[in-house]
Amino acid sequence: MQTGEEKIRWAEQYMPVLREIRERFIREQPFEGIVIGMALHVEAKTAILARTLAAGGAEVHITGCNPLSTQDDVASALSGGTIHCYAKRACSLEEYYEAIDKVLDARPSITIDDGMDLIHRLHTGRRDILPGVLGGCEETTTGIHRLKSMAAEGKLRFPVIAVNDTPMKHFFDNVHGTGESALTAIMATTNILIAGKHIVVAGYGYCGRGLATKARALGARVIITEIDPRRALQAHFDGFEVMTIREASRIGELFVTTTGNIGVLKEAEFGLMRNGAILCNAGHFNVEIDIGYLETHADTISRRDGIDSYTFSDRTLHVLAEGRLVNLAVPKGMGHPIEVMDLSFAVQALSTEYMVRHGKNLIPGVHDVPTAIDEEIARLKLASLGCSIDSPTAEQEEYMASWDAGT
């Protein structure tokens, strides 16, 4: 069995972009004297990010952002030197927030979040630390939604870079990362055949689109449910069946929620599902499937290896990973592919550097990743792949910058 350190070393060899950034950080020490507080999924790729920041001079305090996504052997290997890790797998909610508080006890000046729990705790229970926070970065869609709500109400007290909303995150992490890792975790946990299955994907954002496309490539018959008419129309023109969640509930054999919203699958849908239907979630929080209803209304419940089976008088429904993030929370979940997280964590690393340098000049609120950072990461990845691209000529640049070139 691999140790945590062996997992980290395996991941590192497939993360050339972050490795190159780390080499520059070692030379320049952009985080000297900076304390960085992190709440992320603590597994091998995340360890590379934490070590990259520490190599740049940071004191890093890190915990998990989901009670079931930490890999304990990696967490153990990560602690040491200027990195302090408090994450533990299968922790209670009380333990989860105790670990969040341990990160905040270090009085970080920069936060890195996946889901916004660290920032939420800062603004609700640890406001004494707020004056010392320069800014933060947020990794995922759900966290960005929460942050924008805070900002709209005037309650967000420092600037946060929306790492999730940049093209390098959407195009690769959300589409390819979620698509591949969710299906891999489902197949490894259940051993079911994807080909020929009616798979219902709730939500056709970047994550849902990636999952639907890859499931179809494996031979699935994919059904999309949506509340946004434009995304529903896009799914239709992409060749997927589009229908309401109630209609899809009668047909689906495997359901995957990707909306980030609450109550997508609940009592009414459960009552329509066929015997043996499998339900799971690829959104950040465990709110998309109404687990509470299943827990209180099933005749019998059996639990094994990441599968909870709820048996009613006429059917049994199977839920993976307790309705939590399926690609990380099942026992065999490894999260997004390494090469994908090389890009996403490169965005995190450079955005953190940008916040250290420019945070004092940014107003409280949610800010986009600077385009120059996004493009730099793409160029670094292309170079690592041996790919070359063209540059515009002076004539082309002049043409694109002009407004008076008519027909």
TrEMBL record:
SUPFAM superfamilies: Formate/glycerate dehydrogenase catalytic domain-like, NAD(P)-binding Rossmann-fold domains. Binds 1 NAD(+) per subunit. One of its GO terms (molecular function) is adenosylhomocysteinase activity. PROSITE patterns: ADOHCYASE_2. Residues 174-333 form the S-adenosyl-L-homocysteine hydrolase NAD binding domain. Keywords: Hydrolase, NAD, One-carbon metabolism. Its EC number is 3.13.2.1. SMART domains: AdoHcyase, AdoHcyase_NAD. The keyword Hydrolase applies. It is an enzyme of class 3 (hydrolase). Coiled coil: none annotated. One of its GO terms (cellular component) is cytosol. Its cofactor is NAD(+). GO terms for biological process: one-carbon metabolic process; S-adenosylmethionine cycle. It holds the Pfam family AdoHcyase. NAD(+) binds at residues 140-142, 205-210, 226, 282-284, 327, 336. Belongs to the adenosylhomocysteinase family. NCBIfam families: ahcY, PRK05476.2-3. PANTHER family: ADENOSYLHOMOCYSTEINASE. This is Adenosylhomocysteinase. It comes from Methanocalculus chunghsingensis.
